[in-house]
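Hi, here's the filled form for the chain we discussed.

Project: internal
Contact: R.S.
Residues: 188
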Amino acid sequence: MYYLLKYMLQWSITNNRNSEFQESTECRKSLKPSDCESYRDELLLRRHENTCLWVLDDVRYRSWVKHDGQAILWIIGIPGCGKSILSSFLTKEIIQSKADQLFMAYFFCDDKDERLRTAQAILVNLLSQLLQQVPDFIEHFLAEHEYATKKENTIWTIGMLWRIFERIMNDTNARQGYILIDALGIYP
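And the returned structure, exactly as it came back:
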């Protein structure tokens, strides 16, 4: 009897996880995110060997990455000085070193594509990545009546996306994470 109950409980938990994973996959499709990973990888290909390593020893970066100080690490510089290359390097570095402990979502605003420099584009892509890494975040999407009733036919508004983002950021059960937005400061 004990083993039957144990098996039933394990099956229930596994079935629930599979359901959450499937729901989060469908939700991500409805968001229609861009391919941030390919864009980041293109930037990484432009990085010269042994560049960007200096940031790993920077006191401000080390404090930020350990969550010891400021919640925001703001990197500024003149156009063309390598901020986007540095950002792509940092996303890869953080993902490789902390992937099992934290979440990492990123977005690269693109001055050549108007669609990739809007608040909506930023939120869609960040939320899609967060949902991919933490399928449990689906509960924050389901709290939106529009998504809960229309699913893949949802027309995402900036208000809906922002509310979901806020709920995720305020989720006390969520693990810590990093959000990186490149070139945010150059757009009005």
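Let me know if anything looks off before we file it.
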